[in-house]
């Protein structure tokens, strides 16, 4: 693709030869046919003449004078668009018995599917499921009964939507009685769900994934949870039942959120944090004992690293009891 066309597609200004032909995105191996993304000043230590072009910000552009430069106001967003330009679609095995003409799919009763539906192999869709337009499933996706999926949704391989939630009660014989989950899962427009995620149906009310949410791989969303619009969650996070996550939350990897938690809009939770109280204000939160504002946690962490020295100072040794010398 010509560099001038790429600049147009990724919303970047071009300084250099627009006729240069580019075949991909560069990593550690230099290539005159590829574009290198330079986001930070500490990356400016390579022989940039070996690359076909440099994608960077206005602040760093002067480091690449005389080269082909793609200059962006939002370089990470331009980089995302650049990778999409060179992403190749995966082919899917064709099934002669499939009404959609590709993959293998098993449909139960009363399933409604919109236009431009794509899926991989071994997809299972249970009773009373409705699916909107422009929806894509990977391989081995299971959509359980009564689930509603709106438009422009991507669900990657191995994910299960609408599974039974984890609700149990002890009986008189100290055995577990399961609470049947009678609600459903509603997934709104423009949601992307990664590999091997589990989203449980509601107990009575519904589990709701609002529009624009993106989920990484191996995430568990429990019954009756609501994820607010445009929230992003990294891998291995678990959110317990009846929690309400606000709009535009950014939740790091391996975060644990206990049940009945509410977070405000525009909350950022650092990776591996445990959330055991409501987060009522926007901001960055970090910690495990308990979670607190990020700035407060940094001060706490500083003192934790000095505890051994503090103990040595305050745990003084008596030298002479009679003279009261210490």
Helix fraction bin: 10-25%
Number of helices: 4
- The backbone outline, from C-alpha atoms, is flat
Question: How would you name the oligomeric state of the polypeptide chains in this document?
Answer: single chain
Strand order of the largest sheet: 6-8-11-14-19-22-25-28-30
The CATH first-level class of the largest domain comes to: Mainly Beta
Q: How confident is the prediction overall: mean pLDDT?
A: 89
Q: What is the strand content?
A: 25-35%
What is the second-level CATH architecture of the largest domain?
A: 3 Solenoid
Poorly predicted regions are none
Structural class: alpha/beta
- Measured distance between first and last alpha carbons: 79 Å
* CATH topology term of the largest domain: UDP N-Acetylglucosamine Acyltransferase, domain 1
Describe the largest sheet: 9 strands, parallel
Q: How many strand units?
A: 32
Walk me through the structure.
The protein is α/β, with parallel strands linked by helices and 326 residues long. The protein folds into three domains: 3-85, 3-Layer(aba) Sandwich (Udp-n-acetylmuramoylalanyl-d-glutamate--2,6- Diaminopimelate Ligase, Chain: A, domain 1), CATH 3.40.1390; 106-227, 3 Solenoid (UDP N-Acetylglucosamine Acyltransferase, domain 1), CATH 2.160.10; 242-326, no CATH class. Helices cover 12% and strands 26% of the residues. The protein has helices at residues 3-9, 75-85, 294-305, 307-314, and strands at 13-15, 24-25, 34-37, 53-57, 69-72, 105-107, 112-113, 123-125, 130-131, 136-137, 142-143, 148-149, 154-155, 160-163, 168-170, 176-178, 185-187, 192-193, 198-200, 207-209, 214-215, 220-221, 226-227, 232-233, 238-239, 244-245, 250-251, 256-257, 267-269, 274-275, 283-286, 292-293. The chain has a nine-stranded parallel sheet with strand order 6-8-11-14-19-22-25-28-30, with no helix packed on it.
């Amino acid at each position: 693709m010509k560099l001038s066309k790429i600049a147009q597609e990724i919303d970047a200004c071009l300084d250099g030869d627009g006729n240069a032909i580019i075949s991909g995105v560069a990593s550690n191996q230099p290539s005159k046919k590829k574009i290198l993304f330079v986001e930070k000043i500490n990356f400016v230590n390579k022989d940039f003449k070996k690359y076909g072009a440099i994608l960077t910000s206005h602040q760093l552009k002067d480091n690449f004078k005389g080269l082909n430069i793609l200059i962006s106001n939002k370089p990470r967003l331009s980089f995302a668009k650049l990778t999409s330009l060179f992403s190749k679609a995966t082919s899917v095995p064709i099934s002669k018995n499939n009404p959609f003409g590709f993959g293998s799919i098993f449909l139960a009763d009363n399933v409604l599917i919109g236009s431009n539906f794509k899926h991989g192999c071994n997809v299972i869709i249970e009773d009373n499921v409705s699916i909107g337009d422009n929806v894509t499933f990977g391989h081995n996706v299971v959509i359980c009964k009564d689930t509603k999926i709106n438009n422009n949704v991507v669900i990657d391989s191995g994910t299960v939507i609408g599974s039974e939630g984890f609700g149990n009660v002890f009986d008189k014989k100290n055995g577990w009685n399961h609470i049947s989950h009678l609600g459903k899962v509603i997934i709104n427009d423009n949601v992307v769900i990664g590999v091997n995620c589990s989203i449980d149906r509601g107990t009575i009310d519904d589990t709701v994934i609002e529009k624009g949410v993106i989920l990484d791989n191996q995430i568990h969303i429990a019954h009756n949870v609501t994820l607010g619009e445009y929230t992003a969650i990294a891998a291995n996070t678990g959110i317990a039942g009846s929690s309400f996550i606000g709009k535009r939350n950014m939740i790091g990897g391996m975060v644990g959120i206990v049940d009945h938690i509410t977070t405000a809009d525009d909350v950022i939770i650092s990776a591996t944090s445990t959330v055991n109280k409501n987060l009522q204000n926007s901001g960055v939160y970090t910690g495990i004992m308990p979670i607190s504002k990020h700035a407060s946690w940094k001060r706490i962490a500083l003192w934790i690293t000095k505890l051994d020295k503090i103990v040595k100072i305050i745990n003084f040794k008596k030298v002479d009891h009679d003279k009261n010398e210490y």
